[in-house]
Amino acid sequence: MDVFTALSAALFIQRIICVSPFCISRDGATYSKWYIFNGILQIVVAFVIYIMNFNELIERNLFTQSNLQFSRQSQLTSVVGVFEIGITCIVFIVVLVVMYVKKEKQVEFLELIHKTDLIFEETFKIYPNNNQKDRNIRNGSLLFFTIYHFILSIALQFITYSFELTFQSILIISLYNYQVSAARFSNLTFVFYTDLVRKRFKLLERYVHGVNLSTEQDYLLIVDIFTTLQKSHEILNDIFGLINLFTSTHDFTFIVSQLFIVIWIANQMEKTMVFLKFIVVIFWFAPNVAKLVVVSNISEATARSIKKCKNLLYKDKKVDKTTMDIVENFSLRMKHFDDNYTAINFFPIDNTLLYTMIGALTTYLFVFIQFRMFEENYTGTSNSIIS
């Protein structure tokens, strides 16, 4: 089975294992109506992909010598493109399987958030912001990036002559963007959920600042809210740890390969075409950079809010003899609680991830450029010997 047949099968399997966005109501977390529509759409797309038999299109157009405009740089772009499609397929399947396996966890997370909101409203008279606005921002961003990538895909393939712009090639681009959108939806959902946790910790911090936790009942209530939010935090880590591992790694490899193409374009292309192709490639991987920055920053901001709340609860002035045992038990429990989000403990999801990737990026590009210089020198030496 070739990669495109596998992609078709993956789309068909997705109908069974897809998890749709959730809605939060007074009764808890429920599925949205989008679930049914998305399932029908996936069956149609999978059927079209299977009928069109995309592997023949690749064999006919990729590395063809009949197209004089198909330069070596275009071949490189095509190789990177096919590699990107394969990696995207793997990430796509991982995202779908994880979201399916963890779907009950998502419902549990939203119910915990709803529970803390009720406590804030009924006990503290603090009303959390309406989540619908954030959800609309998430869905609007997903729609924008889907259209953005679709247009850029066509522009990039047209400019580099990697494929002829036929109905089949447009369907391949549509398939790729559909998979990218599914992975990006999981990242936007992680940002949306993490922001829910961060805002609740901010509300808790604001309340603790303004009250004197001198009684056991007051302190127990605050600790109960904190542990509920802590559990929400751990559930998010459990759901999105593997997804963050694959998507972050995919973003890194994609950015490295695209930057290498940018360097190649600057050295190989004619001056009149360099600027246009350079801009298209930069715009192509810019959303991946933006996504890494947003995910890392929102994770670090949430970790800071958690640390601030813990520090407030540890303050000596908040503690007397009646609450000393509660504070000590709370302190012991917090020693086993990691404030940061992680990619299943491979690396933290915060700004240190960005710094690490920048360092690795420069190293990889240096190695790629050295290989490129070696290839040019070797080719030049071989040609001179032959002549």
Automatic annotation (TrEMBL):
Membrane topology value: Multi-pass membrane protein
Function (record text): Gustatory receptor which mediates acceptance or avoidance behavior, depending on its substrates.
Family: Belongs to the insect chemoreceptor superfamily. Gustatory receptor (GR) family.
Residue ranges of the TM segments: 34-55, 76-101, 142-163, 175-193, 239-266, 278-298, 353-371
Name the record gives this protein: Gustatory receptor
Pfam families referenced in this protein's UniProt entry, alphabetically: 7tm_7
GO cellular component terms listed in the entry, alphabetical order: axon; dendrite; neuronal cell body; plasma membrane
